[in-house]
């Protein structure tokens, strides 16, 4: 019997190293002699949960380890977002090489972003069912390979197909990184980590044209795709080595399995005891349907997803609009024209500093509150600031972008948009995570699906919009839409608590956080 246990332990050591990122069976097993409820039989199994200072619990990791995990998750997200827009840096060469129109070549951008809508429906809920790490390793491996294939494409059809597949498989970090933030930090401390994750999501599309413009001029569009593949491959290797499994339910499920094997008794997690997971097919069906259920039944998710969709779509609209304004109208080269995106990046960086200050305030208020926690609505003040800044920036850009006015003036407008973009996006991401802690990845996936459709669609009609309306009125269209969205954070601040109390998924308690185990 002892030999059998050792054999099982060895097989689990290899499996756990891949799935959980650790081969330390003692940490996975925990205290074998701990007195869990139940008698260990199949009919009355031991019901396990976290023990105090449990080494397997991701929230008990040291500060340095948490920072490394968040940094790598954010940089992985940045690589995916960067790849979406870097393609546009040398789109004229793609048109020449494959003899296609600019509108057709833009499909390589739009279908990539459309993959962000398809992927999260699978990867986010599957990460909640089977683990964040295994989803990242599988999807990011394919993301890297499809970028290599895109760089070597022999015709336009293969380029577009490989780009679409890369976007689909690369979308996992866009939602799973938000879930990792919820795994590692409690509500009062996760805001600062969410700043980095969200900045990576929105800064990537801005940095892409800057790097892609100069690299495309110097080495051609294939090296743009090659750079993305190198970046993705590097993050994949670092993820394998440094990012373990963090999701509570999955970690405890593996602990229950290991304890059952090593002791011969029956163990089950408290979550699985209350809601048995069912067969693999049933778990897959339930997990993949959850983002769609959130979109169809949760007013909070719908409202926030619509607002995030507008902001995200406007960001990608500017990917096509700024080349029109600065390259076609002002006559700048693609490389120099790509520098126009720096103003958006500067606005985002200032917003990041502002959000760090906001999160310190949030943490201080959490410590002084009676419960030590704050409701999700406490995340919204920065969103209110950003909601005002976005229309100001877009209207300023719209009516100062003619060649007769110095280029720096309209760039101030895009900087304001970048500032407001981060403020609103971070507020909404934090609000979603605080409201749907256990299902944070699915809530973010639901929002990502909707915003990705807008991100894919907006660049397709931008050229026609500017040709039909001119640079002033075409740029005013998103500005007017931003005015319509402006009341959203103010209304959520007033009515959000009532909406959460009626939700089956959201946390209705005033503290806004519970253990996700």
Automatic annotation (TrEMBL):
One of its GO terms (cellular component) is plasma membrane. Residues 1-30 form the signal peptide. It comes from the Eukaryota. Its main location: membrane. GO terms for molecular function: transmembrane transporter activity. The chain crosses the membrane at residues 67-84, 104-123, 135-154, 160-182, 194-215, 221-243, 300-326, 338-360, 381-399, 405-429, 436-458, 470-492. InterPro entries: MFS, MFS_dom, MFS_trans_sf. It is a multi-pass membrane protein. It holds the Pfam family MFS_1. It is found in: Cell membrane. Keywords: Cell membrane, Membrane, Signal, Transmembrane, Transmembrane helix, Transport. Residues 69-502 form the Major facilitator superfamily (MFS) profile domain. Belongs to the major facilitator superfamily. DHA1 family. Polyamines/proton antiporter (TC 2.A.1.2.16) subfamily. This is Major facilitator superfamily (MFS) profile domain-containing protein.
